[in-house]
Amino acid sequence: MRKPLAGKVALVAGGSRGIGAATARALAVDGAAVAISYAASPDRAAAVVAEIEAGGGRAAAYPADQGDPEQVRALVRCAVDDFGRLDVLVNNAATFVPGKVDDDVDPGALARQLAVNLGGATAAIRAAAGVLGAGGRIITVGSMQATRVGFPGVADYVSTKAAIVGYSKAAARDLGPRGITVNVVQPGSVATEMNSDEGPFADVQRAANAMGRFGRPEEIAAGIAFLAGPGASFITGAVLDIDGGYLA
Fold first, then answer.
1. What pLDDT score does 192 carry?
2. Per DSSP, which regions of the chain are E strands?
3. In sequence order, what are the residues at sequence separation of 6 or more whose Cβ sits closer than 8 angstroms to the Cβ of residue 208?
4. DSSP-assigned letter for residue 87
5. In terms of Cα–Cα distance, which of 81, 76, 186, 162 is closest to 125?
6. What is the pTM of this model?
7. Is 157 a catalytic residue?
8. Looking at 38, 157, 167, 246, which residue is catalytic?
């Protein structure tokens, strides 16, 4: 049986671990050739590539700082040059700097968070818009806290994720006439290295959603893979919450 993404090429920015790695695997299982980027984990990126290739797929990894717009543009160019086309862009790279608005937080760290979470995503969307054809997909990983902030100390982080929603909705209007969809996936609490399900705030997070547990990266990747596939051809400018009922 033909796989839904057979013949397609996907780029997962931030694909060496966590949700990004799970997404790269899911897209490969659906038949896509997959390019991933990494900032500081070459060994993990190589392991993701090796796993996809061991399963009969095609993959490659590229170093790229998502906080540098020129590196983001170069990443898209490399993926197109090496794979011949681009059909799916997944913006997953992000950083998190906690701090309340009345805390003394390093302004450089906050600027970096804005550059990666918002600047990197918008630069990738603009670069991809120049090479995607009809049927192209752009999916950005946001956060459920862009809709409802349930915890203190996240104002700056949440602002980047809320901005992604507005940008994606506007981009959907720009690219819709070309048959390109633009959507956002908003995960809830997901067990990753950045947010351990055994950490000091894990019980609070579990209690905040209807299912009473953390999500798995694979569960977020399944939603992203759906939006990347043919069944989502009439979905654009949308926000898909995969949060275990945090927003219920």
1. 87
2. 9-13, 33-38, 59-63, 88-91, 137-141, 181-187, 239-242
3. 150, 189, 246
4. -
5. 76
6. 0.96
7. yes
8. 157
Beta bridge partners of 181: 137
Would the pLDDT of 34 be above 90?
yes
pLDDT for the residue 47: 98
Q: What is the dihedral of CA 243, 187, 53, 180, to 10 degrees?
A: 110
Query: CA of 90: how far to CAs of 168, 218, 248, in Å?
Result: 12, 15, 26
Of 33, 13, 30, residue with least CA distance to 74: 13
Angle, in degrees to the nearest 10, between helices 42-54 and 18-29: 20
Q: Show the 3-state SS of 95-145.
A: CCCCCCCCCCCCHHHHHHHHHHHHHHHHHHHHHHHCCCCCCCEEEEECCHH
pLDDT digits (tens, 9 = 90+) for 116-154: 999 999 999 999 999 999 999 999 999 999 999 988 999
Quick: pLDDT tens for 35-58: 999 999 999 999 999 999 999 999
Q: Is residue 207 very low, low, confident or very high in pLDDT (cuts 50, 70, 90)?
A: confident
User: 213-245: buried (b, 16+ CB within 10 Å) or exposed (e) per residue?
Assistant: ebbebebbbebbbbbbbeebeeebbbbbbbbbe
